[in-house]
Inverse folding.
């Protein structure tokens, strides 16, 4: 009976969808690919359809490995077999100068590391390719039947041939209809029949994603002589029956053959370690085990004393991050003071201070009153050298113009007083880069006009002291004192003048009283005229009436 079953398996029907008359005459399988030869006269379209029914396509020969597979399949049998090459509809004829002569693989690309064309010129009616016993490629009309065709099947993985004693035969069958006993690898959904033990196995994808492996529907191990009973661990007999066992720290899987770690499916959040027939949860560095013994909690590394950082410490999940105060940079784990002028916005010069920096300007420039980090041209005289760039373009400060008639490139001050910048009633004084307006006594400058001082005013306003007016451009800070300083100076002058006048008046009064007293000295006495309500007087008496 076992021999009969083996015969039925070898001669049984082909795989579903694969007609008997196109069963492969031979096949070769590698780890991820199988190649099969079909000796059946068919045109190119029918041959391509036959490969597709088995889950493959006409063979692509991109390397010498594929060529060697063809040589094994042909076994010196003469005839021409279709390859997976065809001319795209966009090309009317072949292109002999190209690697594939204009042909494309049935997979839609033209990449290859190997060709073996038979000599030929440009062909226009032969749009498909066959290979001969000599392994030469030849163009051929797609509608003419060839002697057979070669198919290629690709897989993600495969099952190895079963390990059995030398005298135990194994019959294999593939999903594309190939049968035999000499396969080195079998694609998924292949079958293996071991007649001696009445054992039928299937190559199936592993549920845990470990790749295809031999299996069967029944639970537990099969005879240990066949690939170790299919056990992931070790195979032995218990009470005359094969039984699988697993190494320490693992238990048998649900099928009775695989091994499952005790940590598989454990509730541990981070790590699981097998210890003493059980498992123990552990956490990554920077975490500690929670009270439930399964979860993990972050450790606040910055809470300890002393802290792990030199200046600032920021706790993160599972760790911490050291940072530095403003003005410091973290270098090799240490905070180093950053040079204050490094990266400063100063346009010209930068001066380092104890707690920062200060911007400065090069000679011929002054600080921009609107932006202390910027510099602008400055001149405190009636003429100064111009600043010229590499293209001989020269620049002057505001309120100055370039004297182009002179060879030394000088900037001359503009006399703004010639342009009537002050009111008609005011006097104008030109300054380097600016000007000053002087209103008459009793007037002050307001909105570019001299207006009277109403209701009294400061000494400066009454006297008509000058009030500076800026040039049409922004004046330099040193060209005129601020208005607050002028007002303060006027007040001081008025106070001093008033004090001097008061002192002179007191001196004059004192001198007058002294002269009057000296005229009556020694001849005048005084008497008290008696108390009177609301009246008190002094009366002069003759000297003979004195007591």
């Amino acid at each position: 009976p076992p021999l009969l079953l083996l015969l039925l398996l070898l001669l049984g029907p082909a795989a579903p969808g694969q007609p008997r008359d196109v069963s492969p005459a031979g096949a070769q399988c590698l780890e991820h690919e199988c190649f099969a030869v079909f000796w059946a006269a068919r045109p190119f379209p029918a041959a391509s359809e036959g490969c597709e029914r088995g889950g493959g396509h006409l063979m692509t020969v991109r390397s010498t490995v594929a060529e060697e597979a063809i040589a094994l399949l042909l076994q010196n049998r003469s005839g021409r077999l279709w390859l997976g090459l065809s001319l795209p509809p966009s090309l009317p004829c072949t292109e002999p100068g190209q690697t594939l002569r204009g042909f494309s693989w049935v997979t839609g690309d033209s990449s290859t590391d190997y060709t073996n064309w038979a000599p030929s010129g440009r062909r226009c009616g032969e749009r498909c390719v066959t290979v001969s016993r000599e392994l030469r490629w030849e163009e051929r009309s797609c509608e003419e039947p060839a002697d057979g065709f070669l198919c290629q099947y690709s897989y993600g993985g495969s099952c190895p041939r079963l390990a059995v004693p030398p005298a135990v035969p194994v019959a294999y069958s593939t999903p594309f209809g190939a049968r035999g006993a000499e396969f080195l690898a079998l694609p998924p959904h292949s079958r293996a029949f071991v007649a001696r033990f009445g054992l039928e196995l299937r190559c199936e994808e592993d549920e845990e994603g470990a790749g295809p492996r031999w299996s069967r529907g029944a639970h537990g191990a099969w005879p240990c002589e066949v690939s170790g009973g299919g056990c992931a661990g070790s195979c032995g007999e218990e009470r005359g029956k094969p039984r699988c066992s697993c190494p320490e720290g693992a238990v048998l899987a649900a099928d009775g053959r695989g091994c499952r770690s005790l940590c598989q499916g454990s509730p541990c959040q981070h790590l699981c370690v097998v210890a003493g027939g059980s498992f123990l949860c552990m956490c990554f560095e920077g975490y500690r085990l929670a009270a439930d013994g399964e979860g993990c909690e972050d450790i606040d590394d910055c809470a300890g004393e002393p802290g792990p950082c030199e200046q600032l410490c920021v706790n993160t999940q599972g760790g911490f991050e050291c940072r530095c105060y403003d003005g410091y940079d973290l270098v090799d784990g240490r905070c180093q003071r950053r040079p204050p002028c490094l990266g400063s916005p100063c346009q010209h010069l930068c001066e380092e201070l104890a707690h920062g920096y200060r911007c400065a300007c090069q000679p011929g420039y002054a600080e921009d009153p609107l932006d202390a980090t910027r510099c602008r041209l400055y001149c405190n005289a009636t003429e100064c050298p111009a600043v010229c760039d590499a293209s001989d373009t020269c620049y002057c400060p505001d309120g100055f113009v370039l004297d182009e008639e002179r060879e030394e490139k000088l900037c001359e001050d503009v006399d703004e007083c010639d342009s009537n910048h002050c009111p008609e009633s005011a006097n104008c004084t030109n300054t380097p880069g600016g000007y000053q307006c002087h209103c008459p006594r009793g007037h002050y400058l307001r909105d570019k006009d001299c207006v009277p001082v109403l209701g009294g005013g400061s000494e400066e306003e009454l006297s008509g002291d000058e009030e500076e007016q800026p040039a049409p451009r922004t004046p330099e800070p040193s060209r005129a004192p601020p208005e607050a300083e002028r007002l303060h100076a006027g007040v001081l002058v008025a106070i001093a003048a008033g004090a001097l006048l008061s002192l002179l008046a007191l001196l004059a009064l004192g001198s007058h009283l002294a002269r009057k007293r000296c005229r009556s000295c020694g001849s005048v006495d005084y008497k008290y005229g008696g108390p009177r309500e609301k009246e008190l007087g002094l009366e002069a008496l003759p000297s003979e009436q004195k007591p």
Observations:
- The first strand starts at residue 26 and ends at 29.
- The CA atoms of residues 23 and 177 lie 6 Å apart.
- The two ends are 183 Å apart (CA to CA).
- Confidence is low (pLDDT under 50) at residues 1-20, 465-489, 516-547.
